[in-house]
Amino acid sequence: MKTKHLLKLIIVLTILSSCSSVKTTSDYDKSVNLSDYKTFGFTKESKELPTNDLVKNRILNAISSNLKSKGLTESDNPDMLVDLGLKTKEKTDYQSTNYDMGGYYGRRWRVGTSIGTTNTREINYTEGTLVINLVDAKKDQLLWMGSGTSVVSDKSVKEENITAGINKILSSFPSLK
């Protein structure tokens, strides 16, 4: 079970640390006026991310700072909840390289035989997705959803990379100021 939690941690951190390669999507309930929401808080599950306290706090602080910059206030009795989700998928890619060698070419003729070979290698990797759901605290209704997807790598995670990744995911959430 701990291995599964560590894998999720690695995925979140990698997604956030390689912000430039994060593919983001977002959607929202168009029937809801988001400016009606003034406060936010984190779900219990989001506060219990499977990671050490330092990294967990960096993730939660980055989300909190972003939402505060958009006009929301963090509260113990929020009208909007932040719920985080993680998903991984094992993928395989194939990379082929062609090697061709031709004969001698003169000014007006070609002499010799050409030879070619192809080298194909299999590349296995893990793709990770971090989902940020903003939910109406009373109605349990999804208001806004944003996600970031990236290839999991061995990059080290720094606070500025986590912040940049979170900001990219939340960039389409409107300012409520």
From TrEMBL:
Gene3D superfamilies membership: 3.30.160.670
Limits of the DUF4136 domain: 25-174
Transmembrane residue ranges: none
One matching Pfam family: DUF4136
Signal peptide limits: 1-24
Keywords on record: Signal
Protein name: DUF4136 domain-containing protein
